Amino acid sequence: MRIGILGGTFNPIHNGHLKIAEEVLKRLGLDKILFMPAYIPPHKDKEGIIDARHRIEMVRLAIADNPGFELSFIEIERGGVSYTIDTLRELGHIYGKKAELFFIIGIDAFLEIEAWKDAEALLASCNFIVIMRTSFQCRDLKKITLLKLPDDKLTAMDKGEMESLRLPIKGGNYLYLLNITPVDISSISSRDIRSRILSHKNFKYLLPESVELYIIKNRLYGK
């Protein structure tokens, strides 16, 4: 199986997450994508993160109508700080060597990968799908010293000569760089949605209606 992994606090899950997951699923021919809420994220401010049971339920509601999406409880059930290397090792035990794992991550987060737990082992443990953002360039990835990436191909991607790029990395895996079909993802963030709710501003159409109604019913992120 070809399995994508989309982790995060999902505080709350929104349409940007779903858009990325759907396009990755189809463009790379994955069998499914696991949505994996973190119990305690290691690289984010813990303040304002609501109870895991609410975040799980919002993910469940958001992906309910997509057979290619699946909710994973691995990090929630493990508890503690949710380190990606631990999660990938656990997934390796669950699915075995026949499964090919693809970790989905934005370029902003991937540029900090060397600060993650067991970074070198992490980069050798699976494929990485890096989602490009308008405020970054592919050549920014040259800053990651654990990877030796070809400058010419990164430059070609930055020039718009290709919409995606596959580069070999450690452990026989690949780094995929993807430009997602234009959508104003930059204006959709969980932080922005929480801020809108607290400020009594409209947040309709930024997340699935089922998630919106759940937030209102349970008075999450403010009264």
Describe the structure.
This protein has helices at residues 15-27, 52-63, 74-78, 84-95, 107-110, 119-123, 151-158, 190-198, 209-218, and strands spanning 2-8, 32-37, 69-71, 100-106, 127-131, 164-168, 174-178. It has 223 residues and is α/β, with parallel strands linked by helices. A seven-stranded mixed β-sheet has the order 3-2-1-4-5-7-6, sandwiched between helices. α2 packs antiparallel against α9. The longest helix has 13 residues, at 15-27. It is globular. The protein starts with a strand and ends in a 5-residue tail after the last helix.
Q: Low-confidence parts lasting 5 or more residues at pLDDT below 50?
A: none
Give the biggest beta sheet: 7 strands, mixed
| Helical proportion, percent range | 25-40%
C-alpha termini separation: 44 Å
SSE blueprint and pairings:
Blueprint lengths: L1 E7 L6 H13 L4 E6 L14 H12 L5 E3 L2 H5 L5 H12 L4 E7 H4 L8 H5 L3 E5 L19 H8 L5 E5 L5 E5 L11 H9 L10 H10 L5
Parallel strand pairs: 1-2, 1-4, 2-3, 4-5, 5-7
Antiparallel strand pairs: 6-7
Helix pairs in contact: 2-9
